[in-house]
Automatic annotation (TrEMBL):
It comes from Megasphaera micronuciformis F0359. SMART domains: S4. Keywords: Isomerase, RNA-binding. GO terms for molecular function: RNA binding; rRNA pseudouridine synthase activity. It comes from the Bacteria. The keyword RNA-binding applies. Gene3D superfamilies: Alpha-L RNA-binding motif, Pseudouridine synthase I, catalytic domain, N-terminal subdomain, RNA-binding S4 domain. InterPro entries: PsdUridine_s_RsuA/RluB/E/F_cat, PsdUridine_synth_cat_dom_sf, PsdUridine_synth_RsuA/RluA, PsdUridine_synth_RsuA/RluB/E/F, PsdUridine_synth_RsuA/RluB_CS, RsuA_PseudoU_synthase, S4_RNA-bd, S4_RNA-bd_sf. One of its GO terms (biological process) is enzyme-directed rRNA pseudouridine synthesis. This is Pseudouridine synthase. CDD domains: PseudoU_synth_RsuA, S4.
Amino acid sequence: MIRLDKLLGHSGYGTRKEIKSLCKSGDVTVNGEIVRDSSVKVDEGATVIVAGEKVEYEAVSYLMLHKPAGVVSATQDSRVRTVLDILPSRYAASRVAPVGRLDIDTTGLLLLSNDGTWAHKVISPKKHVPKVYEAQVEGVIPADVGERFAAGIVLEDGVECLPARAEKTAEGRLQITVCEGKFHQVKRMCSVVGLTVTSLHRSRIGGLALDKNLQAGEYRKLTKEEIALPLLSTEDL
């Protein structure tokens, strides 16, 4: 059971004061009955209608977004659009946040959730969850690029990266797999071996690949089976 005002607030229908007023106006029904008291407890699976619109309540959300270029992986930013601006407002109200981050010009798979424990497992380097990127690069790809990434790249500022994978997939293209998420990590790793990344796209996290049916800027919910896939480590795959 959950308080009606909490359910509606979680679903993006305003503050507790606004929801109280909404209920008093008679615009809220629960299982077909008008409810004027916003403090009553209702079943989480109840059919709640607000002004003729069915409320889509989710206690916990797990989303896959095909992040486009030009938006930041943040919940709010006064200067540029964020990934939350792409989603319906109910997700911001329920405190859904990006799981990790992609640079503003990087595209591809971005997970979002309000399950903090799950999110921590996905992004923690200790969990060894692989993140796979497709990189377009300028410069001559070294013949030993795979060995150098596997040995652990030391960035120009002295920061040591965990062992990673780098495989040439075409002329000027690399598939890079890392298990951590340092600031601009893939671009900085490539710079160490003499390459400049001109475009970067994340295609996979753990055992979960970006849905090919999602266009840039589109999202969908993860299925129950998919929720466990981003938690798969390199040892599991």
